[in-house]
Design goal:
Belongs to the group II decarboxylase family. Its cofactor is pyridoxal 5'-phosphate. This is Tyrosine decarboxylase. It comes from Dioscorea zingiberensis. One of its GO terms (cellular component) is cytoplasm. Helices cover about 40% and strands about 10% of the residues. It has 14 helices and eleven strands. Strand 2, helix 6 and strand 3 form a beta-alpha-beta unit. With about 475 residues, the chain is of the alpha/beta class. The longest helix has about 35 residues. It starts with a helix and ends with a helix. The radius of gyration is 24 Å and the shape is globular. The protein has a domain of about 270 residues: Aspartate Aminotransferase, domain 2. The structure holds pyridoxal-5'-phosphate (PLP). Pyridoxal-5'-phosphate binds next to helix 5.
């Protein structure tokens, strides 16, 4: 590493990225390239001799950027957001600069200690119960993704119950969730060896705005117990992926507690909104949870990846995931006075991710982060008003945070209830390159999702997006 070269190239790269952000609106939001496009543009083999940074950047501009979907574009409204920010970016830079691998405390004490502190800070901002703080039996940890968070708590819950009832009872263990729960739970069950037929997917429909019904959970548990099964894990969601529905944590949590079930709350997207006092009630009942997860990288201005997980009983995670090979032994770990985050996650190696969250919290402050969330929710409300002002469209699920679910109303007698019509509208707006939205299916209907949450999005972008949707709808309905 040549410091002076790093300085020169680093400045060049920052300029390149700043220019990218300056011109981001000029690109097609959704990349329009065809599969395999890059093979035709790049050589078959790596260069034998060094090339100049300028040559590489020219290729990025001409060959890579056309294949980039611009998640940071203000015209990006698909899936859920994946925020970047100056503070998040600087934190990433610093983390890349140190490039430590902080699996044990000793490998970089600051990495572990900052993570513990920042997760405690955020737990306090979210007003999580004290049991989630590091001062007691619990604590927080940064995982790469919400999927990893779900997997590690499922493993901890599985092993905790199997320690009690014996390893050969795996086939009796039952997991509960709603049909709106993210597929990450299904994947976690596959990895954890949960029998597929023991994954109870409870129906959540429009009658409860797609939230899990506690009574259904209760019934399912009673049935399972009477058939000799062992209920052990419940995953509720605050802000489901399809429609941002909120499961009733309090009631579900009480049922889980009464049956000694590990209760995980997945608030990957909507957890960020709960830093605002007026949205905090969406996680009322979190006292009943065993673990809680949210992605700071979705909607809290922290560059990907930064998924936050809190548990009340860290020993359950550690008992499931710790290993102690000779080559990693060290005095601090042996004396049991430190946190070794390698025992709270799947991989050994881990990045210094707390830096970026720390920088986001310090450079913006909680009040600005709250205003940021409020502004997106206000923009989503405005978008919803636009939808309701045009009788050709309908809103199809309540808007709770910054996601609006809507569709074009199908003409009477439409054979597939508007499926093709809305599919075509989605395709038309996304191939226009002007905006990017995504879809889902709710109650058998093909639904369009408009998620406000990109950091650069302003009212003008929402209005422009609405115009794109209206214009394409006019063309389609004419056809
Ligand atoms: N849970 C919910 C509610 C989500 O919306 C998502 C992704 O959008 C996930 C989990 C998966 O997130 P990740 O990509 O961090 O695993």
């Amino acid at each position: 590493m040549d410091s002076e070269q790093l300085r020169e190239y680093g400045h060049q790269m920052v300029d390149f990225i700043a220019d990218y952000y300056k011109s981001i609106e000029s690109f097609s939001v959704l990349s329009q390239v065809k599969p395999g496009y890059l093979r035709e543009l790049l050589p078959d083999a790596a260069p034998k001799h060094p090339e100049s940074l300028q040559d590489v950047l020219n290729d990025v501009q001409q060959k890579i950027i056309p294949g980039v979907t611009h998640w940071q574009s203000p015209d990006y409204f698909a899936y859920y957001p994946s925020n970047s920010s100056t503070a998040g970016f600087l934190g990433e830079m610093l983390s890349a600069g140190f490039n430590i691998v902080g699996f044990s405390w000793v490998t970089s004490p600051a990495a572990t200690e900052l993570e513990v502190i920042v997760l405690d800070w955020l737990a306090k901002i979210l007003k999580l119960p004290n049991e989630f703080l590091s001062s007691g039996q619990g604590g927080g940890v940064i995982q790469g993704t919400a999927s990893e968070a779900i997997l590690v708590v499922l493993l901890a819950a599985r092993d905790k119950v199997l320690r009690k009832i014996g390893r050969n009872s795996l086939e009796k263990l039952v997991v509960y969730a709603s049909d709106q729960t993210h597929s990450a739970l299904q994947k976690a069950c596959q990895i954890a060896g949960i029998y597929p037929e023991n994954f109870r997917v409870l129906k959540a429909d429009s009658s409860t705005n797609y939230a899990l019904i506690p009574y259904q959970l209760h019934e399912a548990i009673i049935n399972d117990l009477s058939s000799g099964f062992i209920p052990f894990f419940l995953c509720a969601t605050v802000g489901t992926t399809s429609s941002a529905a909120v499961d009733p944590l309090s009631d579900l949590g009480k049922i889980a507690k009464a049956n000694d079930i590990w209760f995980h709350v997945d608030a990957a997207y909507a957890g960020s909104a709960c830093i605002c006092p007026e949205y905090r009630h969406h996680i009322d009942g979190i006292e009943e949870a065993t673990s809680f997860g949210m992605n700071a990288h979705k909607w809290l201005l922290t560059n990907f990846d930064c998924s936050l997980l809190w548990v009340k009983d860290r020993s359950a995670l550690i008992q499931s995931l710790s290993t102690n090979p000779e080559f990693l032994k060290n005095k601090a770990s042996q004396e049991n006075t430190v946190v070794d985050f390698k025992d709270w996650q799947i991989p050994l190696g881990r990045r210094f991710r707390s830096l970026k969250l720390w920088m986001v919290l310090r450079l913006y402050g909680v009040e600005n982060l709250q205003s940021y969330i409020r502004n997106h929710i206000k923009l989503a409300e405005q978008f919803m008003q636009l939808i309701t002002s045009d009788p050709r469209f309908e809103v199809v699920a309540p808007r709770t945070f910054s996601l609006v679910c809507f569709r074009l109303v199908p003409p009477e007698g439409d054979q597939d209830n508007g499926y093709k019509l809305n599919y075509n509208l989605l395709d038309a707006v996304n191939t226009s390159g002007k905006i990017f939205i995504s879809h889902t299916v709710l109650s058998g209907k093909f639904i369009l999702r408009f998620a406000v949450g990109a950091p650069l999005t302003e009212e003008s972008h929402v209005k422009a997006a609405w115009k794109v949707l209206q214009d394409q709808a006019t063309i389609l309905l004419r056809e």
